[in-house]
Amino acid sequence: MGFQTLDDLTVAGRAVGVRVDINSPLGENAELADDARLRAHVDTLSELLERGGRVAILAHQGRPGGDAFEGLASHATRLDELLDAPVDFTDTTFSTAAREAIDDLPNGQAILLENTRFYSEEYMEFEPQRAARTHLVGRLAPHLDAFVNDAFAAAHRSQPSLVGFAHALPSYAGRIMEREIEVLGNVQSTPTPRAYVIGGAKIPDSMTIIRHSLDQGLADEILTTGLVANVFLLAAGHDLGDGSADVVYERGHWEQIDRAADLLESYPEKIHLPTDVAIERQNRRVEIGVEDLPPAGDEAVMDIGTDTVETYSDILATVGTTILNGPAGVFEESTFETGTRKLFDVVSDSGFSIVGGGDTSAAVRRFDITGFDHISTGGGAALRMLTGEPLPAIEALEA
Ligand SMILES: Nc1ncnc2c1ncn2[C@@H]1O[C@H](COP(=O)(O)OP(=O)(O)O)[C@@H](O)[C@H]1O
Ligand SMILES: O=C(OP(=O)(O)O)[C@H](O)COP(=O)(O)O
């Protein structure tokens, strides 16, 4: 690995800035609605605190102008509950008060600084050298001895707190970052044959993953589900009816049908399409074979069908590794959760299994499926990694 880890860091008595990604869904009163990302960072934070570090935690929440753009006070309260050591909070990020609070931190104690994105520069993207000259990094770095980046889920952003500290201070990957890079960055070393189960609604990203994994010889089988499968069915000449076509069109993915058609032409044996699908008819789930498409009126394809789950399960029983991204259907609606629940269950039992994607992880939690070997904390970051694109925050650690 081209970067240093916590194993290389002398911690006791030193002020360590730790960038985490605890960007989380919030409830109606801006309270935390899901603490999964906070729990994921417990290993890194506990280790630094137990080793006597003075830990200043940096994080963002939401995007300027968005509903989830809130302060981090409730995140601090939850971290304080999750960790054995005290976690304080300061409602500024790099003011004199925040810097004094860092200077005054006793060994083995932490402070969470306010949402980094409350400061305009943090929502801009810079080269690391330039990011190191932003006010946030410039004012905090002199109060820190080292920087740990554990925010894998934000590693595709080259924002100051993610790439600037790495230029200004000795830098280390946290335990999440280390594990994500080890697994997602080494897909080529996992047991073969490999299946990629690709669903969900991020069609351009999915097409890029499929193209990359086939061209690089990483994937032996591509099992399409979700809206991705709908685009492939359209590319294969099926008429999905106005309901599904409208969804693809409204989301601006019409041109992706050509990419799907090219992939089908290049890899006809490796790309699998659903043989049956579930549609909504009079508020009920009805499964039909793809030969019986299109459905009537504006009925839309909302899930894969039972035969498809069985066929895909037979393929998954023969592979060494499965990489899963994207729900198989509109899993948020109980009528259409079946494909996702059953297929995810099969994947969790098959060979070595890697799961990436925000909604995908939410589905895993919702259906309480255990047994996956790696569930990525990242959505967009995991996708970038699976498409083979470099991630700026990881590159900054390696520089
Ligand atoms: N057939 C379908 N039609 C419309 N939306 C779908 C379909 N299948 C899955 N989806 C939607 O895809 C979304 C998740 O996709 P995506 O955001 O790409 O996943 P992830 O965040 O895991 O990468 C869910 O909201 C789900 O309802
Ligand atoms: O939640 C995140 O990414 P994700 O939505 O891809 O899982 C990260 O915190 C990055 O947030 P951003 O996409 O607002 O930069």
From TrEMBL:
A GO CC annotation given for this chain: cytosol
Keyword field contains Phosphoprotein: no
Enzyme Commission identifier(s): 2.7.2.3
Subcellular location: Cytoplasm
Pfam families linked: PGK (PF00162)
Binding-site residues for ATP, renumbered to this chain: E332, G357, G358, D359, T360
Signal peptide annotation: none
Domain of life: Archaea
GO molecular function: ADP binding; ATP binding; phosphoglycerate kinase activity
Pathway info: Carbohydrate degradation; glycolysis; pyruvate from D-glyceraldehyde 3-phosphate: step 2/5
Broad class of where this protein is predominantly found: cytoplasm
Residue sites binding substrate per the record: D21, I22, N23, R37, H60, Q61, G62, R63, R117, R157
GO terms classed as biological process: gluconeogenesis; glycolytic process
UniProt keyword annotations, A-Z: ATP-binding, Cytoplasm, Glycolysis, Kinase, Nucleotide-binding, Transferase
Catalytic activity of the protein: (2R)-3-phosphoglycerate + ATP = (2R)-3-phospho-glyceroyl phosphate + ADP
Annotated residues for binding of (2R)-3-phosphoglycerate: R37, R117, R157
Family affiliation: Belongs to the phosphoglycerate kinase family.
Subunit record text: Monomer.
Name of the protein: Phosphoglycerate kinase
Species in which this protein is naturally found: Halanaeroarchaeum sulfurireducens
Name of the gene: pgk
